[in-house]
Design a protein that fits this description.
single chain, 146 residues, alpha+beta, six-stranded antiparallel beta sheet, 6 strands, 40% strand
Length: 146
């Protein structure tokens, strides 16, 4: 359990993690699973399968971007507030192939009453850096419904 930045109710990070995994049909359809949430931090994983490939046979860029967004959204949710993505950028460095497992780790840069900013790193199972990103969220200011 941890407190949000404004001294509110202690957050049960395991409950938030479970909630994120059971209430995000988009992430579930892509096979993205949030493994851990701590205050200002989240980690998500996904295995690349044949349905994740683009027309040239490589993992589609949308997989990376979606993983980054889900991980950053989990880090934002660690404060117990509902939020929406206000903007995001992702830089591709390397590619993953079928059978690879991608891990996205998001870390908080700024938590504010309106805007919250997170950095994310994506790696494969060999810890090779696949890309990095920065995502900004609009804090809706209302508690997450659990």
């Amino acid at each position: 359990m941890g407190k949000n930045r404004y001294g509110g109710t202690p957050m049960d990070f395991q409950e938030i993690t479970e909630y994120r995994n059971t209430h995000n049909p988009y992430a579930a359809r892509l096979g993205i699973v949030v493994e851990e949430i701590q205050l200002g931090y989240a980690r998500a994983v996904k295995s690349i399968g044949p349905d994740d490939l683009n027309p040239v046979g490589l993992a589609h860029g949308g997989c990376y971007f979606s993983m980054a967004d889900v991980a950053c959204g989990g880090a934002m949710a660690s404060h117990g507030f509902a939020a929406v993505t206000a903007g995001g950028e992702y830089h591709f460095f390397r590619i993953a192939g079928v059978g690879d497992t991608i891990t996205a780790e998001a870390q908080e840069i700024k938590f504010g009453q309106s805007l919250c900013v997170y950095q994310v790193r994506l790696t494969d199972q060999k810890k090779t850096l696949l890309g990095t990103g920065t995502f900004t969220f609009f804090n809706l200011g209302r508690p997450i419904e659990q």
